[in-house]
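Recall the central idea of this unit: under ordinary conditions, the amino acid sequence of a chain determines the structure it adopts. In this exercise we apply that idea directly, starting from the sequence alone.
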Amino acid sequence: MSIESTDSNFKTLVGVIIQAEMDGKPRHELLLELGPTPKHILQAGGVRFENLDLVIKAKTVGKMHFDHGVSRGMIERLPEILETPKAIYHSASGTPGGSVVVMTFEVQRGYPLIVPIHAKKPIGRNRFCNEVASMYAKEGPNPEDKWEKAGLLIWKS
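Accordingly, the structure predicted from this sequence is:
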């Protein structure tokens, strides 16, 4: 089930999803629509990223909060965070040309938050979307220098 999200109700939906999981009644079937893919991601993603809707699965929201320890408030700000990235990199571990990693200005426990986004994922039978795959703190040494030296940098603010 797809739910059209706006900035005003995205926060509410995130709260509903987290509470449902805490109550032992996860709503993993829900798909939250974040709207159009932000222009920086489209431009940085080149031919991989088409001007498709950006979505996130409710299951991913739960994973971000419960597995990766991202606060509810930070998840609620996801649309805003994606509009103002610090840098965008090719994914070092994903399918070549299939995803990018958005590094944010936000930090968690002193580590930069990153948001992997997959390009043109099939959603349902006849629909494709760009999908937020996760959000987590990249622990360890700051990866910026390493990723830039590896030639993964696509765009930087």
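Residues 1 and 30 are 5 Å apart (CA to CA).
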